[in-house]
Write a structure and sequence with these properties.
By secondary structure, the protein is mainly β. It has one helix at residues 76-79; strands spanning 14-25, 31-33, 38-45, 48-49, 56-73, 87-105, 115-134, 138-142, 150-160, 163-170, 187-197. It contains 1 helix and 11 strands.
Length: 198
């Protein structure tokens, strides 16, 4: 009977998938959120242990994220016409993500079920941004030219085994303040779940 070999130099290289709700922060006064503003992401992180027991590690990675920010725009506050119809709109954003985590976990070589706390910083590069609207008029516009090309955020995941809470806080506005007619400092706070897959 062969003896089970335990890898004492184990890593926690992982694919990840997250689903979250986008709480829009610093939105203009005439904006109100509605429905579920979805945040989805997926990618891969490479684990580099930095302590002898391998409980501490750093992990750079690459991924993709999708955000669907849903809000109504009250144009009556802009036009002065109280009968102006509310416009439902969506800002749909696609990014390439570059996360960097510092990780703590109480993993052992022979078990993949453990508690973890991962804190990270993420830089995201804009692939595409669209503004879709419906009301008196319906349509969509490409808004790449008025968005910041890079987004920066901090995030935290913590939990046990596959299921982990996920909190992601945007550090800079979506819109380039030099390219919009009115100042728009909108950011998001994402709260959801992160799933790690070995």
């Amino acid at each position: 009977m062969s003896k089970l070999v335990v890898d004492s130099l184990f890593r926690e290289d992982q694919f990840y998938v997250s689903i979250a709700y986008n709480f829009i922060q610093k939105k203009p006064d005439n904006f109100n959120q509605y429905s579920f503003s979805t945040g989805l992401s997926a990618g891969f992180l490479r684990d580099f242990p930095i302590s002898e027991n391998r409980h501490w590690a750093i992990a750079p990675g690459i991924g993709y994220s999708y955000n669907d920010l849903k809000q109504t725009i009250d144009l009556s506050s802009v036009t002065g016409n109280p009968d102006f119809e509310l416009v439902k709109s969506r800002i749909i954003l696609h990014y390439v993500d570059l996360p960097l985590e510092i990780r703590w976990r109480n993993a052992t070589p022979d078990s993949h079920k453990f508690w973890r706390i991962h804190a990270g910083f993420m830089a995201s590069y804009l692939i595409n941004g669209k503004f879709k609207y419906e009301g008196g008029l319906t349509g969509s516009e490409n808004i790449n030219d008025i968005l910041n090309k890079f987004q920066y955020a901090t995030y935290l995941t913590f939990g046990f085994n596959t299921w982990n809470a996920y909190i992601h806080y945007g550090l800079n506005p979506y819109f380039d303040k030099d390219k919009t007619a009115a100042e728009n400092n909108m950011t998001t706070l994402k709260i959801g779940l992160m799933f790690y897959i070995l």
